[in-house]
Amino acid sequence: MYQDITSLPVAVLGAGPVGLAAAAHLLERGLRPLILEAGETVGANLASYRHVRLFSPWRYNTDKAALALLEAAGWRAPDPETLPTAGELLDAYLAPLAALPALAGKLHLGHRVSAIGRAGIDKVKTRGREQAPFLVRALTRGGVREFLAQAVIDATGTWSTPNPLGANGLAAEGEDLFAGRIAYGMPDVLGAARERYLGKRVLVAGAGHSAAGTLLALAELAAASPAMRIVWVTRGGKLARVFGGGAADGLPARGQLGARLRGLLDAGRLELHERFAIRALSACDGRIVVHGQEAVIEGVDEIVCATGARPDLALTRELRVRHDPWLESTDALAPLIDPNEHSCGTVRPHGHRELAHPEPGYYAIGAKSYGRAPNFLLATGYEQARSVVAALAGDLAAADEVRLELPETGVCNTRSGYQQPATSCCTVKAADAAFC
Asked: If you ran DSSP here, which 8-state letter would residue 107 be given?
């Protein structure tokens, strides 16, 4: 049996903004991070949508512990009120942070974590469990590698596991057959993917900010191609959340996004199909037919699936974890973020206690902590990282003193559908996970 696991590093899974923030906080606390990143660069998920301009300014997109490391090395912060693109966040913040000597030697790129367990102990055994280190298995170009850690901070996100087109949460029948004509997330419509969509009839599925951004980009492209047509499909019939609070939104760019989308719809530039539950795809004359429960949409050339994402829970199959049955966040966090209940502009403060699992020392933070809930903002992940690391360091007073200030959306969607001012709500709709 292992004598003292506290001499081992804390494994941080994922080198995105929240993962690197956790690593910075670990260093600040005198703990040693071991950072495992699946991609060949830091922020690999950000790189996949680097063309997207975020609607939160720089001041919400940087972490205090990370800033302290950067500023000590002479880094100069951008204007806190400007809006970066995902690529600018990567190039001007994450890449310089990862290159600092304090972090560079702890970072392992091209290490895709495939499983986490306890060394020498399976999920069933209780005796000696807390004294056994975590065993983290990663797939690399050189083969399988295993690492021991005293704790695990899982910041792998959800971007790489998008939801399928099927309204029932399963892939639509035939979805795999059209994989080459379906893009998930936010393709670079005005850049690298321009020729793919120019002049085509493009269907966008989804009712979040990722869908809105793609619809606006397609409309801009369509201005140069009169024959181009844009079809918008939503599963529900209430679009208030994506249209947002307009001028009342604490993030003006987010409010403008919804206002511009509403303008496109009012101008007749979008073919909207509300309450359209996709169940199958088929082919007809070389084009895609999209089948709903009762209706069909014919003549589609390309599809953009922007229906959100879900966490990869397979990693923790051998850990004692407890998730909310439908959101797949922790059960303690779920009531604060459940979109079935509320969707507002502020987050009730939460930290290590709401993020804890029955497996001591394992925490999921960042977008993954929210499971399938589409209401995560980077600032939330940074505060989670600070609280969790303080708890791992034994400073429960600091860990419990959780403070979080986020901008209001200007609209609150309650279960009844009644819209009320966001200031009267206590729980959150902050921003689309796609931007995290």
From this structure: E
Question: In whole angstroms, what is the distance from residue 92 CA to residue 307 CA?
Answer: 29
In angstroms, the CA 334 to CA 242 distance is 21
- Inter-residue contact 238 to 413 (CB < 8 Å): yes
C-alpha–C-alpha distance, residues 50 and 328, integer Å? 28
Show the beta-strand stretches assigned E in 150-219: 151-154, 182-184, 201-205
Strand 107-108 relative to strand 10-13, pairing: unpaired
Q: Environment class of residue 184 by beta-carbon count within 10 Å: exposed (0-12), middle (13-18) or buried (19+)?
A: buried
State the Cα–Cα distance between residues 80 and 19, nearest whole angstrom: 21
What one-letter code names the amino acid at 255? G
For 143-194, the pLDDT digits (tens) are 999 999 999 999 999 999 999 999 999 999 999 999 999 999 999 999 999 9
C-alpha span between 34 and 113 (Å, rounded): 12
Within 8 A by CB and 6+ apart from 135, the residues are 116, 117, 118, 119, 146, 147, 148
Q: Which of 102, 307, 289 is nearest to 206 (CA)?
A: 307
Half-sphere exposure of 165 (CA within 13 A, CB side): 28
First to last CA, the chain: 40
Q: H-type helices in 29-180, by residue range?
A: 44-47, 58-61, 64-72, 86-89, 95-99, 101-104
Sole residue written with tokens 């609209």: 411
CA distances from 275 to 205, 206, 234, 278 (A): 11, 11, 6, 9
Map residue 419 onto helix, strand or coil: strand
Q: Give the integer Cα–Cα distance in Å for 300 and 352.
A: 46
Structure tokens at 107: 């970072």
Q: How far is CA 168 from the centre of its chain?
A: 21
CA dist., res. 188 & res. 372, Å (int): 24
77 within 8 A of 58, measured Cβ to Cβ: yes
Q: How many CA atoms lie within 13 A of 363 on its CB side?
A: 30
| 242-267 per-position pLDDT tens digit | 776 556 566 666 777 888 898 999 99
User: 3-state SS of the chain: helix, strand, coil percent to 5?
Assistant: 30, 20, 50
**C-alpha gyration radius of the chain:** 22
pTM for this model (two decimals): 0.90
Residue 196, helix vs strand vs coil: helix
